[in-house]
Fold this sequence. Notes:
The protein is mainly alpha-helical. The protein contains four helices and no strands.
Amino acid sequence: MKFMDYLIWFGLxxxxxIFELISTIVLIRKKRTFFYFLASGLIILLxxxxxxxxxxxxxxxxxxxxxxxxxxxxxxxxxxxxxNTNNKTHNNNGSSPISGTVSKKIIxxxxxxxxxxxxxxxxxxxxx
Length: 128
């Protein structure tokens, strides 16, 4: 085989495998939940099997598409992991995303500050 053939059929998949392994390890360190350990373990296992197939193919075994399919499955699992990691439903303080905007709207709509001794009355009532 020529150098370009080796680069396309073996070099690029190995670079993609290295990227997947680094990304999944970073995600494990970021979030330590059962889902992330399970998905990362599956990605690592699939990539190791793909590397074994690629090494066998480089040494003269009959070519197969199995390592490339395993790499694509690993990329899909990694994309699911990334999507769940970047899904931010809460603010940094752990409150719901609505609480920040509602408190800002209440502050904007209130013309006078409410002191602790003032009584809260219904909107239609008169202040005494």
